[in-house]
Amino acid sequence: MKIGDYVFAKYKSGIYVGELLQFEQPKAKVRMLAVHKHPTQGDLHHPMQLDVEMFHQRRALSYREVANVHVNDISPYLETKIPEYEQSLRTALQLEIESMEQLGTPFAHKCLALLEQLRTEYWTSNHKI
User: Fold this and answer.
1) Cβ contact 52:42 at 8 Å
2) 129 domain-assigned
3) pLDDT, tens digit, for every residue of 98-107?
4) Which member of 19, 51, 103, 120 has the greatest number of CB atoms within 10 A?
5) Domain assignment present for 127
6) What Rg, from alpha-carbon coordinates, does the chain have?
7) Average pLDDT score over residue span 33-56
8) Domain with 37 in it
9) CA 83 to CA 30: how far, in whole Å?
10) By the 8 A CB rule, do 88 and 62 touch?
11) Which stretches of 12-96 are assigned E, i.e. beta strand?
12) What is the CATH number of the domain that holds 14?
């Protein structure tokens, strides 16, 4: 991969489509252009557990936000077109909500509450996506 290439980038528990800005082992800088998978809510170190010290609400990275990503967490994006950011966020969020609804556990119910809050926040007039 080279600077300017489009990549999938795993960041925390989300997956994004972005532009590779810098590639220096062991990290790469990636500018996020679309959301492929919305981040999972909760504690990254104790996935799927409700009884944790802090149950995090995890927002998707913003359009054009730059993140330092471990080089092992990037891969080439081979599609010809990058999805539009806002629509990709809507789709990824809806898929995450549906996944939690199907799970139906107490953990999933807590995630759903946080995801519904995010849905409202993402599209309020005061919030820039």
Assistant:
1) yes
2) no
3) 999 999 899 8
4) 19
5) no
6) 15
7) 84
8) 6-122
9) 16
10) no
11) 14-24, 27-37, 66-70, 74-76
12) 2.30.30.430
What is the number of structural domains in the chain? 1
pLDDT of residue 39: 95
Asked if residues 83 and 17 have their Cβ atoms less than 8 Å apart, the reply is yes
In this predicted model, what pLDDT tens digit does every residue of 4-32 receive, in sequence order?
A: 999 999 999 999 999 999 999 899 999 99
pTM: 0.90
Q: Is residue 107 part of a domain?
A: yes
3-state class of 80 per DSSP? coil
Give a yes or no: residue 92 inside a domain: yes
Tokens representing residue 25 in the block: 């082992």
Q: CA 16, CA 115: separation in Å to the nearest integer?
A: 18
pLDDT at residue 55, rounded to an integer: 85
